[in-house]
Amino acid sequence: METEIIQKKEIMRVPKLRFGEFDGEWSELKFKELLLESRLGGNYSNSENESDKPLIKMGNIGRGNIALTKIHYIDKDEIIVEKDKIKYGDLFFNTRNTLDLVGKVAIWLNDLPEAYYNSNLMFIKFSNNFFMNYRLNSFGGIKGLRRLATGTTSVAAIYTKDLLKLKITVPSHYKEQQKIATFLSSIDKKIQQLTRKKELLETYKNGVMQQLFSQQLRFKPALSAALGDENGKDFRDWTNKRLGDLTYKVGKKNKENIQYPIYSINNQEGFRPQSEQFEGLDSNDRGYDISMYKIVHAETFAYNPARINVGSIGYSYDLNEVIISSLYVCFKTKNELEDLFLLAYLDSHTFKKDILRYEEGGVRQYLFYENFSHIKIPLPTVEEQKQIANYLSKIDTKIESVNQQIIQTQIFKKGLLQQMFV
Length: 422
Known about the structure:
5-stranded mixed β-sheet; alpha+beta; 12 helices; 3 domains; 4-stranded mixed β-sheet; Adenine-n6-DNA-methyltransferase TaqI, Chain A, domain 2; single chain; disordered N terminus
């Protein structure tokens, strides 16, 4: 009987994408062989009252970066250990969180003069923290850390004894680690610059909106503007009108159970295919009854009465014959009100204050059309509405252009993280 001999191919630890001056395999080492130092933070009592001692917690740790969107503070009476003070370039590991978030690694690159970390975070130090931040946040790094997690979906942990056994492939040459870190840091810097540019544009838009809707900033009629006549005829004074006098409810039910495209309302993008918002599945895929869903035609507004306070409102533009959940409120405007002017006003600070005044309910607050219709808005002529909408639309176009640059740069970085590590 003949024996078939199979020669196993040697697994080469070489990345797909590499700087030309480096060759040879990467080394596979245990976490403990790479780790120079580690320790957990202190058990500090904390509050949301601002003080001079910000406390970084697990909720601040992202994939590779530390967010300062919601900061807690160490109580002023607490005794603080000096070793818990964070320095530039410090690397942290999230030991506890939900099952899908535990094990995040992030580096401190913020400019707070003083900050500390608590006991759910582990300070970890390597010969090159910047490289290890990218390595542990690459696809293979995240996958490896997730395998160590134990616990339930809501509460999970990664224990130090398991973490120290984790095998990691790294360049044998320190210079290669350094070059990878420098290259990826330059991409992060580009993302930060674009993000800052977007924030400045958004701040500028908010300032302009405040001036426009308070009538501190006014447009001239087209003829006066064309002639450059600053002292020419002005638009008439604005009036205040109820939304109920300017809009009307729509929303015919899908009683024939037609398989129209199914959409949801997203507080960032407005109308969005439901399958994109909910893990690739829509109501059809989930076996829901869509006969009570509302049919939406072009130039229609829709909002979630329980989430309009966080901007869950959308405009369909030329999107036609799609369906949305019966929970949404749908309406259209009358001729006296320009759609894009209203869309801009619905994002204003004044309207958001009115939402709080007209909401009703117990634990959860709602703004149904009946109360929505009582809200008064400042109303210029249709021509001035169009000018305001066009001006704000140009700013929106610039913001979206920068946003697309951010997205494309992030996609580029993600591809590099997949190819530059073994």
